[in-house]
Amino acid sequence: MKKFNYTMNHRADEAYMAEMCHEGWAATGLVEGVWTFEPCKPDQYTFRVGYLRGMSGGQVEELKRRLAGEGIEFVSRYSFWAIFRSEHDFQLYTPEEELAICEKIRRPMPWGSAVSWLAAAGTLWLGVKVSGWFGILCAVLALYAAMCTCLGISYTRLIRRLKRERA
Predict the structure, then answer these.
(1) Considering its fold, how many domains does the chain have in total?
(2) Mean pLDDT across the stretch 143-154?
(3) Which secondary-structure segment (H or E) carries 34?
(4) Over residues 42-56, mean pLDDT
(5) Which of 47, 48, 152, 32 is nearest to 102 (CA)?
């Protein structure tokens, strides 16, 4: 089964997979918000999302082997993330490691958002002054800027929540 659900951070991905698994559907893949599921027993699996950015192919393979030895199965990779599952509860990161990952992810987002919004404004100006065709580029840039902004807000909120949980 395929289903569209675009989430804004890895914790939201995990919550969505848990919800679907509770309904008897195990995630098998994700591509740009389109999830693929297969039938499973309700609550059969615990799903976790791992951060792979900066890891070499060999490091990723070593991580998969290490986790497989603990009964944790690699499910799928999307962008710089990987989905893992197991029939027992598990954590991929300590709270400190997860907080560091979230801060690393969020760090460039305000600049990316600002630059994207400026580029969208510039192409809007070109659309008005030069040619309406720039409106297409403006719309694409505005969509990208909105996504960057939403992701930044999502990770800011997640970081605050993780800090509260640690306190």
Answers:
(1) 2
(2) 92
(3) strand 34-39
(4) 95
(5) 152
